[in-house]
Structures are given as C-alpha cells and as structure tokens.
C-alpha cells in the first residue's frame, strides 16, 4: 500500500510516500526520535499511535524494536481473561498478535531512492528490496519491522528450503508462503497416483507440490496461481529444478480449462479473514477457496480421476469448522471419500505448552483426502 507520510522536522514540513506490504495506513502523528529515546517512552508513544521516525544508529533502532517486543510480550500483572472456548482463544490470540504488530510497526525508517538507509551502520538492502519492488523506486518510509522481514526473506530466498521429496531446494520469494511444514509434502509424495498423464495443482504457491508430482513421474502438470509474486516464484523454482518441460505455471482463479485425472489442492487451513497478503496462505475467509475447490471438481475431474485435498484439522480443534461440515460439503459437491492419509505436524508450536493455542495444536492432524466423483463408494469416517 502506498500513501503519504507527513512530519515536521527542524520546523520544516516533510512528506514521503508510505509503503506497507500489509496494507496498514501511515501513522497520523510522527515524532522524530534518535538514540536517546528509552524503550519505556517509546512503548508509551507507540501505544498512543505515534510513528517514531528514527534518526541515528540503525543497530540502536533494531535494539529499540527488540526492547518494545519484550515489553509487549512480558506477562501482565493482571492475568488476561481466560477464553471460554477454543474459538474464543483463537480470536483473542489474533487480536493480541494484531495489536503487537501495530505497536511494533510504529518504529519507522526512511529509505532513499536507491534504497539507501541514511542511518549510521545501516545495512545495504538494495538487493533485497530490488527483488521486492524492482530496480528503481522512489524514496519512501516504511516500518523497521517490515524492513527486517524483507531482509529475512531475502536470506531465505538465497539459501532456500531443502525438500527431500524433490531432491532439491525451493526458494520462496517475499510474500509467498514458505513450505517449511514438510508433513503435507510427504503425504503428496506417498499417496498412490491414479495417473501419471496429467495433474492440476491448484494454488501452487512456491510450486513445491507441482515439483513433487513431477519428480514422481507425472508427465504434465498445470499449476495455477493468482498472485503475481507467487507465479514468478513458482516459475523460478520449476526452472531451477529443471522441471519446466513437465510443469506449466498459469495465472488462473483456481482451475485451468479442461479435465485431469488428478487434481491437487492445499488451501488455507483456517476459516478466518486474512489481514495481510501473506495471510491469504493461512486464512480462508468463510472457507471460500475450500468450498469453491470442492464445488468445481465435478467440472474438471475425469470420471475415474482423483482429487487430493490437503487439509489440517486445526480448524476443527479450534471449533471454527466441524468435521461434519467438511463431509457435508464434500458430499454436496458430488464427491466421495475413498481414503484419507494422515500425519502429525512437527512444528515447534505443536510441542510448546506456553503457546495460547497449544491444546488445539497438540491434537492437530494433517490429512490428504482422496476424493472421487460420487458413485456407489461408501465414505469412511
């Protein structure tokens, strides 16, 4: 999102374009701060909605951000009200994370037209920002938190994520969800293929599942995606893996034209409203993508083909969507479940009792649902 940030500095009015990937508007009030600002004062000012435009030493600005995070995360003197249900715990946790992001987003950094940061000991971020915004971009102001995430994404993109199932690496781009949860990838690598002729990969993201299918010998995979960054990311990954003769990346809203004997989809797992672009890979408001995928299969799956739906049951444990509702959607779409492959997630939060959603995360199961067009097949529980 681009808007204008205005501030007064040395009795002179200044303005610059505001850039926020998460779409947040610029702060209405801006205070010029430097290395003399202590963390308690910064915390108070940020909580009051003041943008803190930093002048001085970049490393000190980063230390200030860390100090703010510690103040936000420290236990309250008065314990927070205990959630009455898993769904309420989820929504309270999202509210808490949103407030945390808003306060931390108040530490601001100015970048010049060549992506140079005019602070002492500032890093060279030109290569990182060129990958996100292009070679030439006018001067702008952004949050230090976002700037650090751009740097982090650049490092991830350089080193990549090792994926054993493809005997190679996937290089996620900024704003494209990284395939660091490998359990769903292993399910796609193990499920019995109904055909090796053609497959559709719906919402391919980094292209990792299309790559898995190609490594398994599927001759042609058409992978669809809407987000321009994800399309570019997937294409680069497929190219560097040498799979571009098997995999075609196209821009499409869910399905390409035609029918396929295998259609794979890993939709966002939680039915909640995304607040930032990257959250579209996590949250599916009102389960719209999930339901549209299921309802569209009858027009795109061959009569003897299979659809693979990769889905966590975390939403069920959080009481955001029931198993009965999911099965009803499958049935109403004219589909039957022929099998369900399951695995437990291995991410750290599943084993962290201090996580607010630990009870749900510790019970979570990731499944690959094998679906066929409805016939006389009986559905398992």
Explain the overall architecture.
- Keywords: Methyltransferase, S-adenosyl-L-methionine, Transferase.
- It comes from Sulfuriferula nivalis.
- Residues 175-312 form the Methyltransferase small domain.
- This is Methyltransferase small domain-containing protein.
- Pfam families: MTS (PF05175).
- This protein has 381 residues and is of the alpha/beta class.
- The protein folds into 2 domains: 2-156, no CATH class; 164-373, Rossmann fold.
- Helix content is 33%, strand content 24%.
- It contains 12 helices and 15 strands.
- The chain has helices at residues 39-47, 58-73, 86-104, 126-133, 144-159, 183-190, 208-215, 228-240, 288-296, 314-317, 323-332, 358-363; strands at 2-9, 12-19, 29-33, 50-54, 107-111, 140-143, 161-163, 168-170, 198-202, 220-225, 247-251, 260-265, 301-312, 335-343, 366-373.
- The strands form 4 sheets. It has a 7-stranded mixed β-sheet with strand order 11-10-9-12-13-15-14, sandwiched between helices. Strands 3-4-5-6 form a 4-stranded mixed β-sheet.
- α1 crosses α2 (58-73) and α4 (126-133) crosses α5.
- The model is unreliable at 376-381 (pLDDT under 50).
User: Fraction of residues in helices?
Assistant: 25-40%
Molecular shape = globular
CATH topology of the largest domain: Rossmann fold
**Quick one: CATH superfamily of the largest domain?**
Vaccinia Virus protein VP39
The CATH level-2 architecture of the largest domain is identified as: 3-Layer(aba) Sandwich
Q: What is the total domain count? A: 2
How many beta-strand segments? 15
Proportion in β-strands: 15-25%
């Amino acid at each position: 999102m681009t808007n204008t940030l205005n501030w007064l500095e040395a009795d002179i009015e200044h303005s610059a374009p505001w850039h926020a990937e998460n779409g947040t508007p610029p702060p209405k009030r801006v205070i010029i701060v430097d290395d003399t600002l202590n963390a308690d004062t910064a915390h108070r000012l940020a909580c009051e909605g003041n943008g803190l435009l930093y002048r001085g030493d970049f490393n000190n600005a980063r230390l200030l951000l860390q100090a703010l995070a510690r103040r936000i995360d420290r236990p309250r003197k008065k314990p927070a009200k205990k959630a009455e249900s898993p769904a309420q715990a989820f929504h309270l946790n999202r509210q808490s994370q949103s407030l945390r992001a808003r306060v931390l987003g108040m530490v601001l950094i100015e970048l010049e037209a060549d992506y140079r940061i005019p602070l002492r000991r500032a890093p060279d971020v030109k290569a990182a920002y060129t990958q996100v915004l292009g070679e030439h971009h006018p001067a702008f102001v952004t949050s230090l938190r976002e700037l650090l995430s751009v740097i982090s994404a650049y490092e991830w993109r350089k080193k990549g994520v090792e994926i054993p199932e493809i005997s190679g690496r996937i290089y996620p781009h900024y704003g494209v969800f990284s395939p660091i949860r490998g359990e769903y990838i292993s399910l796609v690598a193990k499920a019995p293929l109904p055909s090796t002729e053609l497959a559709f990969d719906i919402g391919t993201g980094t292209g990792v599942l299309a790559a898995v299918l190609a490594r398994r010998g599927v001759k042609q995979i058409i992978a669809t995606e809407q987000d321009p960054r994800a399309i570019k990311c997937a294409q680069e990954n497929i190219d560097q893996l040498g799979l571009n003769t098997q995999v075609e990346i196209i821009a499409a809203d869910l399905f390409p034209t035609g029918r396929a004997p295998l259609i794979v989809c890993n939709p966002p797992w939680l039915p909640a409203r995304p607040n930032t672009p990257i959250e579209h890979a996590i949250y599916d408001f009102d389960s719209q993508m999930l339901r549209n995928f299921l309802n569209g299969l009858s027009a795109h799956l061959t009569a003897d083909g299979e659809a693979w739906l990769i889905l966590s049951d975390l939403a069920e444990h959080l009481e955001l969507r029931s198993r009965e509702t999911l099965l009803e959607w499958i049935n109403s779409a004219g589909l039957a479940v022929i099998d369900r492959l399951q695995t437990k997630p291995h991410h750290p939060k599943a084993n962290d009792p201090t996580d607010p959603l630990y009870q749900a995360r510790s019970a979570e199961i990731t499944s690959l649902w094998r679906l066929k067009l409805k016939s006389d097949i009986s559905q398992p529980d």
